[in-house]
Amino acid sequence: MVRKIPRGRVMTYGQIAVILGQGYTPRTVGFVMHGANESNTPWHRVINSQGRCSTGGVVLPADKQQLMLEAEGVEFTGGKCDLKVFLWSPDRKKTVKAETAKRRTTLYRR
Fold first, then answer.
1. Paired residues of 11 in beta bridges
2. Which of 20, 42, 43, 61 would be a feasible disulfide site paired with 33, CB 3.0-4.6 Å?
3. Residue 93 to residue 56: CA distance in whole angstroms
4. pLDDT digits (tens, 9 = 90+) for 74-85
């Protein structure tokens, strides 16, 4: 799922949790993103529901996620991006069909 987010767009932890279904919470998605392989998972494209980066206490440097998103064209004002502009929503029908068989492996694969 996360690998499908286009450059310059973001999804929220909660948005991904809802798509993944029962048993997933925004916090769970955050923990998975923290452990994601940076070379093949665009973890930086997943942010909180306020449009802010939530990696300040976890990633060094603290502004790494925001800098990575800005390099892709995501604009921040006062530390948050406008989700009305930058939020990406996958096509629900295609997502459900494609993710059914590999739902858990997509986020946990390293």
1. 46
2. 43
3. 35
4. 999 999 999 999
